[in-house]
Amino acid sequence: MSQFASAVYPVPNRFINLGKEPAGQPGTVAAATFTFPMTTFKPVDKVTYLEDNAWRNAMAELYNMIQGVQIADISMGGPVFLDGIGYVLTDILGDYWQAVNGTQGSKTSLSGTTAIGATSIVVANAGGISTNTIISIDTLGSTLEEVRKVLSVTGSAPGTLTLNSALYQGHASAGTVIAYTVVNSFVHNWSLLNAGLGAGGWTASQPPTYTYTDFTGVPAVTGARNYAYTCFSEVTISGEATGLVMWDAKATALASQIAPSTPVTQLSTVQPQASWRSTVAIAGSGTGNTADWKLTLTRKISPKFDNNGQADPFAIPRGAFGAAMSWTFDPASDEAEYLYYRNNTQPTAQIVAANGLSGAAAGTLTITGQVNAMDTSELDDSKDVFGYANTAKLVANTTNAGPSGGFSPVQVQIVNQVTNY
Question: CA-to-CA distance for 209 and 303, rounded, in angstroms?
Answer without folding.
Answer: 14
